């Protein structure tokens, strides 16, 4: 009887230890994944030093965009104030980027323009991605004619990338010059770049017969497509696409503003500042220079960071 009780207690002890060992295994796996992640990050930094520097620069820009209303030295100059006695001052200790035709501090206005650039870029990018995913779904669920039309449009944009910019100019001209029209124009002209990756995934799945299989089982092909897109490597490629597109969209917004088709006074946008400043280019070089430098550096930082991430993701697949 005593031996039997000992055996029962032994079994109970073993059962009680099973969860703890399983938890330990999970913790060990998580720690291993973290170590691997940090190792990959370290390798990426060593191999892509320029991309890492650009990533740090983007992080600083994001903080500037978030805290712009707090860090700008002259908040009144954002809301349209004027000090005519200080107009057209060159860069100095009081006004780092000089002043404009109304004596407003250009440093404050350019810094606040970072916030506008990121906001407009994110909104345009989100709308473009939403439209892209919608039309990507259309290939599966709409009729053959609609699906073929979507595919042909994507092929045209893929062969002639400049069409996106030209198309956005046409839409902005028709809708009218404003920040909203710039967002609409870019969103409507940029969606094919988010439909194309989905079309590639659908074609890949169709070759393997998985799309038809999911429909026949009353499932959704989007479950498989979504899982493939959010896989670690595809997600890295998707993020690289987003980063590169963010820079391109910020450049397009600035270009529309510079041509007078985007933001309008009193809005603060880098392209608009350059558009106004070009009238004083030979007398006040700083008016155009500093918004231009911020635009170029931001676009390059997004592009280089995205390209570095893309190259790293491609190397992982080899």
Question: Which helices and strands, and how do they pair?
Answer:
Blueprint: H1 2-47, H2 49-71, H3 106-141, H4 144-159, H5 163-175, H6 179-190, H7 192-207, H8 210-216, H9 221-229, H10 232-258, H11 270-277, H12 285-317
Helix pairs in contact: 1-2, 2-3, 2-12, 3-4, 3-6, 3-7, 3-10, 3-12, 4-7, 5-6, 6-10, 10-11, 10-12, 11-12
Q: Could you say what the CATH architecture of the largest domain is?
A: Orthogonal Bundle
Using DSSP, what is the number of strands?
0
Uncertain spans: 10-20
Helix and strand sequence: HHHHHHHHHHHH
Mean pLDDT score = 80
Separation, N- and C-terminal Cα atoms: 64 Å
| Oligomeric state of shown chains | single chain
State the share of residues found in helices, binned by percent: over 70%
Question: Which structural class best describes the helix and strand composition?
Answer: mainly alpha
Which class of the largest domain in CATH terms? Mainly Alpha
What characteristics describe this protein?
MetI-like fold; 12 helices; globular
How would you characterize the overall build of this protein?
This protein has helices spanning 2-47, 49-71, 106-141, 144-159, 163-175, 179-190, 192-207, 210-216, 221-229, 232-258, 270-277, 285-317. The chain has 2 domains: 1-47; 50-317, MetI-like fold (Orthogonal Bundle). Helix 3 (106-141) runs parallel beside helix 6 (179-190) and helix 5 packs antiparallel against helix 6 (179-190). The protein is mostly helical.
Summarize, please.
The chain is mainly alpha-helical and 318 residues long.
